[in-house]
Amino acid sequence: MSEMDFHPTSTFAIWANAFSPDELDRIEAYGDRLTVDQATIAADASDGSQVRGDIRVTQTAWMEPSAESKWIYDRIQGVARALNDRVYQFALSGFSENLQYTVYHGAEGGYYDWHVDQGVLRTRRKLSFSVQISDPAQYEGCDLELQAGNKIEKAPRDRGTVIAFPSYVLHRVTPCTKGTRKSIVAWTTGPQFR
Question: In the CATH scheme, what is the code of domain 3-189?
Fold first, then answer.
């Protein structure tokens, strides 16, 4: 693990070089062996999850905890713990959902419109994490953008960077116009904010 960065006025915190290029190649090869499906969104308590192309066009797969993925879980949990201890200091209980492997294709115009990572869910998400797997030269567009005030901030695109932010922060992934962007998304949970 490498360096953490956080500025008091930032909407998000980053950990650069959380994974080496070789580790990212291993993660991508593992993720690409998973069966991806069109991503869904949680609509409401009665409807459950739905495919909503007007809100999100993304391919996703859930990375089940296994002997092969344990090191990925361990690394992301370590980064999450360190960033939370240094920056947010939320009461957390850990990950209660599997890691999500996400793929945005330029050929589909993949994107995810403005949303928060809370709502009609089984668990209370408190911190959200995005791990940049793809080299930014491999795609165009597809920026992770966050808005917690009156300006939109772009997250870094550097390969191996982990971006962390409170799950109630409004964010989106802009349309992918060329190539493919891959990432891992994770959420930590915990007791109700007080």
Answer: 2.60.120.620
